[in-house]
Structure formats: structure tokens, C-alpha cells
Amino acid sequence: MVNKVQSKTRNIAIIAHVDHGKTTLVDKLLRQSGTVVDQTSDRVMDSNALERERGITILAKNTGISYEGYTINIVDTPGHADFGGEVERTLQMVEGFLLLVDAAEGVLPGTRFVLRKALELNLKPIVVINKIDRKDATVEKTEAAVHDLFLELATHEDQLEFPVLYGSSKLGFMNNDPSLMSGDMTPLFKTIIDKIPAPTEKNEALQILITSLDHSDFLGPIAVGRVFSGSVSVGAQIVLCKDDKVSKPTKITKLYTFKGLSKEERETVSFGDIVAVTGFSDVPVIGATMCTPDAIAPYPYVKIDEPTISIYFSVNNSPFSGKDGKLLTSRQIKDRLEKELRTNVALRVEETDSPETFKVSGRGQLHLGILVENMRREGFELQLSAPEVIYKTIDGTKCEPIELLVIDIQEEYQGTVMEKL
Q1: Integer angstrom CA distances of residue 236 from 245, 263, 285
Q2: Please, what sign has the CA dihedral across residues 138, 140, 144, 150?
Q3: How far apart are CA 299 and CA 278, in angstroms?
Q4: How far apart are CA 225 and CA 256, in angstroms?
Q5: pTM higher than 0.85 for the full model?
Q6: SS3 content of the chain, % helix, strand, coil (to 5)
Q7: In angstroms, rounded to a whole number, what is the distance separating the alpha carbons of residues 198 and 9?
Q8: Residue predicted with more confidence, 216 or 252
Q9: Exposed/middle/buried for 227, CB within 10 Å: 0-12, 13-18, 19+?
């Protein structure tokens, strides 16, 4: 069988260390392509209230851009390692990625983390040296550090060949020459089209991998994922399969693709599309594959890294109970944590000896802190323990998680900082 190709589609992820300009870049690509015309707000992809307050991306999101007859599906990912589960679950949807690196800050721990994940999936890279307009930018030093990082992390020689662009997401330009300080995003659009592989169909059987979930009060659960092979239309019967589990057949009621900040309804979708599907009576599972009942073929799903830290969530039994929130009982806390597990793939929840206490494990204090803050805003009231590191025994040796720390300080303070650490 000759593999079919969607020659007019490109699927890419944008990855970087936190605050290196990913969401701002997506803003400019949406606007300069004409996909979004709203000029009244920035960081339009950061729709979550906490994301706007903190100025960081917490949830991975996808959008679609139309450019000169091509559809470019873009996944905007978090840069903080605590939200690495968001990166891992969404990188499977794409063939390539843009690695953004701040021209002044250079390669940081988050850069290493997200690049390693992308190269493990054998995705095609494009490197963007961003913020070259900064007065403290060191473009040559940053580019050399990027090449060194690829040499360290690459799994084969092909990954060491990649285009490098230079520009500013904030000012809205990218070029192949680091000395140019003006222009638009045209060179980046053309590089994406020329260098990122078009989606290919591996077989004819339908395979839609679910990578995230949404919900509509009118349509019920919404599964978001990538069509890897085959095609499907509204009204078709499908089943969900994961590992050795297969669901009962269900009928698709709506199909959507993504364009800009909205979804576009479609009658039929096919391989290469990133889609949203409705028609489920039960909530689907992230990592499951949608197939036809007569051709069950689960698509391989990347294993998510294990949690590194735990906190115990308990019912508030202090004298101040009921003063601050309305949702107080263990049943309400348990239901909320179970709901979170459906979409937060890096989270783990375990019951304890006490029916009023739950052990919640995640990738870091920020990961768990965002969950706690969301619950507080929803009206929950609860007690929290101090965080505990999760130890593992590997080959008979007790091991603990580590983090890479970069501190940029004047030389005379170096000794004091080392002593404090």
C-alpha cells in the first residue's frame, strides 16, 4: 500500500522554557495570517484566568491557521517543567516543532526538558532565536548553546540538521539573518511549510488518538485528538480502545476542526486533522483510540513521567471550618479530584486509611498549587499537608528526583549563594 499524504497540512508544536515567548509568537502568527483580526488583546491563547494572572501557559491548547492554501495546526505548550504532562500528551499530535530560545537568557532547564521529549518522538525541529531586540541579547552565544544541547540530546544524526531563524515575537518579525531587525512572519511561515513533514497515513483503518478532553453543556463530553489514519463522518459508529479495553459502540454527533480561537464544524475529517468529537455517553479517557467496531487498532500512547511530590488533601476540621468555602465534605473533595484526573494526566490520587484524607501526587509544587488555587476559587475548603518528595528504589538504591537550577548573579555573590544551596 502506498502511504497517502496530506500535502496542504502541517502540524507543529511550539516548545520553550517558561516566558521565552511561545504564546506571543502564536498571537502574531494568528494575526499576520489573517486568521484572527482582534487587535484589542494580547496572549489570546492564554484563556485561563490563572494563566493571565501569572503570565504563564498552564494548559496545552491547539489552534489552526490558514496561510496561502495551507492549514497549519499549532499546539501551544507550557514551558514550566511542573506542567510537563501537558507537553508529553500533546507532542504526539504533531510532526515537527518550533524550539524558541530567548536570545538573552539562552538555554535553560525548561529548554532541555521539552527538547528531550520532542526528540524522543523523532519530531522535525525548527529553532527560533527569539527576543533579539533585547539590549542584552547574545545571539551567537545562544545559538552555540542550542547546537551543544542538540548534540547532547539527539538520538540520531538527522536531528542535528535544522533551520535557525532570528526575530522578535513581540515586534512580529522573523528572518534568516540575525542582523535584520524588521519585517514580518513570512520567513517563519515558509520554513514551516518547507521543512515540517506533511502528515502521512500509515494504514486505512480509522485511528483517532485522544490527547485532551473538553465539555459542553449541550453536547456532553468532547474528545480532542489527532486523526492518524482513515477518515470518519458524522453519524458513524465508533468504539474507544486502550490497552485491552474496548468500549461499547457510540455514534458521532458532531465533528470539528480548529481555526483561530474557535472550532469549525465539519461533516468529515481525515488523517492529519486535529479534531474535536462529540457523541459520548460516558467521559472518554485520554490516551484511548477511536476506531471502527470492525477494525480495532489502538494507537501507541507515550508514557507520562511519574510524579515527584505528594500533598495530603483533607477535610478542614479546624475551628475555622466553613468560614471561607461552601464545598466542605470528603465526598465533594473526592469527586473534584476524580474529575481532575480525567484531564490532568500527570496527577495521581490515592485514598488513605482515613476517608477524609487523600494523597495527591504531581510533578511539583506549582503543578499541585494550581490545582489547589482552582479548587479554592470554585468554593472548596480543605486542609493541606506539607509537600513530601517521592523516593524510588532503583536497582536497590534509594533515589530522589532532582532539578537543574540556573542562577544569574554577580560574581561577588557566588560564594554566598553556593553556601545557601
Answers
A1: 20, 20, 20
A2: positive
A3: 20
A4: 11
A5: no
A6: 25, 30, 45
A7: 6
A8: 252
A9: buried
Beta-sheet pairing, 309-315 with 268-270: unpaired
Concatenating the DSSP letter of every residue in 83-132 gives GHHHHHHHHTT-SEEEEEEETTT-S-HHHHHHHHHHHHTTPEEEEEEE-T
Q: All 3 cell numbers of residue 96? A: 515537527
Write the CA distances from 49 to 54, 214, 374, integer angstroms.
9, 17, 10
Give burial (CB, 10 Å; 0-12/13-18/19+) of 365: middle
How are strands ordered across the β-sheet holding 164-168? 61-67, 70-76, 9-16, 96-102, 124-130, 164-168, 173-175
Element (H, E) at 142: helix 139-153
DSSP annotation of 124: E
Q: Which of 317, 335, 332 is nearest to 380 (CA)?
A: 332
The answer to whether 380 and 371 are in contact (CB under 8 A) is: no
Q: Tell me: the pLDDT tens digits for 108-124?
A: 878 888 888 888 888 99
Give CA–CA dist 244/70, Å, rounded. 38
pLDDT at 408: 76
Residue pLDDT, tens place only, 55-108 = 555 455 678 888 888 888 988 776 556 666 667 777 888 899 999 999 988 888
**CB proximity list for 381: less than 8 A, separation 6 or greater:** 316, 321, 322, 323, 324, 325, 326, 327, 328
Interstrand relation of 164-168 and 124-130 (parallel, antiparallel or unpaired): parallel
CA separation, residue 384 to residues 151, 335, 355, 366 (Å): 43, 17, 15, 14
- Alpha-carbon span 193 to 403, nearest angstrom: 36
Separation of alpha carbons 312 and 358, rounded Å: 6
Cell (9 digits) for 183: 519585517
Mean pLDDT of 49-59: 51
DSSP SS3 for 177: coil
What's CA 325's distance to the chain center, in Å? 31
Q: End-to-end distance of the chain based on CA atoms, in angstroms?
A: 59
| Helical packing angle, 139-153 and 109-120, nearest 10° | 40
C-alpha cell at 338: 476524580
